[in-house]
Amino acid sequence: MAASPDVVVLDLPSLGEGFDLASFLAARASRTETAFLALLSPDQLTALDPTIGLDDFALRTATAAEITARIRQALWRKARVDARHLLRQGDLVIDLASYRVFVGGRPVHLTYKEYELLRFLAANPGRVFSREELLNKVWGYEFYGGTRTVDVHVRRLRAKLETGHRTYIETVRNVGYRFRPAAE
Questions:
Q1: Is the distance from CB of 178 to CB of 121 less than 8 angstroms?
Q2: Segment 25-47, tens digit of pLDDT
Q3: What domains can you pick out in the chain, each with its CATH number?
Q4: DSSP for residue 140
Q5: Does an H or E element contain 177, and which?
Q6: Single pTM value for the model
């Protein structure tokens, strides 16, 4: 998974008359979460279509401080969107909207319960949960299986996630499991 930039600043007057901003943005809108900021001439500003998908714009004569402020604002908005849809713990990324998991940019294929267990633990980093608590929170009160079901799912998660240099789920002896925060 190639990383895309967080913000792209387009200096439209320098791109020339033939540059089609609407086509450029439409081709990238569905594939990237990049914010696009355009620097415009006064003529381009009056002709700008507000529905083309541009995140922000400024006059080309804007000061560096104003452009920097607009870039920071775009990054702040992007971080808010990420916070609602992505759960990040170091190099582990859980996409809450699409039920996908990535470790170091590599997709990890999980079953539904493995995903739910990982999501629950990663949303509560550092907190220790007993097997019974995990059964209640992840499997629900209606589950009639034994607590060893949790052990099996944790073992499978570890096999799929861990590469040797990073442990995500730790066993707390005689208690249960905890998600190890990225900072530890």
A1: yes
A2: 666 655 556 677 778 878 777 77
A3: 7-85 (3.40.50.2300), 90-179 (1.10.10.10)
A4: -
A5: strand 176-179
A6: 0.56
